[in-house]
Amino acid sequence: MNGSLHSSSNVVDIKLKRGPAGLGFNIVGGVDQQYVVNDNGIFVSKIKEDGSAALDGRLQEGDKILAINGAMLDNRTHKAAVELFRSAGENVELKVLKKAPHLTNGPTGSQPEQEPSMSSLGILAVLAGAAAVIAFIYMRKHF
């Protein structure tokens, strides 16, 4: 996929001003550290509390950064992308593809927690009920 097939409605331009702690987010990915299956792009892994990105509110964990100050990030190593961020200056313009759910293959700690779906809870309830019925029948026949 490599970012070539995405809807323009999911692409946003975000301008951030570098603060004392930088832009206020961490990145993962690159051609040498693929974070999303079949995608060499650069992704936001963490938004730092009270950083520029958090105060702006539009950049989210899991978003793909397509470009920084007009420089495309596709097919770059992680180190090369980090260097572009470091040398970007005080006012930084990001072109961002908003995240698509369930595509990451990175560390589970960097992904949002998911609640079990109702279907999973329903299956567990049915299995527990079946176990209770079997136990009841067994106890009735043997005691």
From TrEMBL:
CDD domains cross-referenced by the UniProt entry: PDZ_SYNJ2BP-like
Gene3D superfamilies for this protein: 2.30.42.10
Bilayer-spanning residue ranges: 118-139
SUPFAM superfamilies: PDZ domain-like
Keyword terms: Membrane, Mitochondrion, Mitochondrion outer membrane, Transmembrane, Transmembrane helix
UniProt key word Flavoprotein: no
Cell compartments where the protein resides: Mitochondrion outer membrane
Keyword hit for Repeat: no
InterPro entries listed in its UniProt record: PDZ, PDZ_sf, Synaptic_Scaffolding_LAP-MAGUK
GO MF annotation, one: protein kinase binding
GO cellular component: basolateral plasma membrane; cell junction; mitochondrial outer membrane
PROSITE patterns according to UniProt: PDZ
One record GO biological process: cell-cell adhesion
Domain PDZ positions: 13-100
Subunit details: Binds (via the PDZ domain) to isoform 2A of SYNJ2 (via the unique motif in the C-terminus). Interacts (via C-terminus) with RALBP1. Interacts (via PDZ domain) with ACVR2A (via C-terminus) and ACVR2B (via C-terminus). Forms a ternary complex with ACVR2A and RALBP1. Interacts with MAPK12. Interacts with DLL1; enhances DLL1 protein stability, and promotes notch signaling in endothelial cells.
Protein name: Synaptojanin-2-binding protein
Record organism: Sphaeramia orbicularis
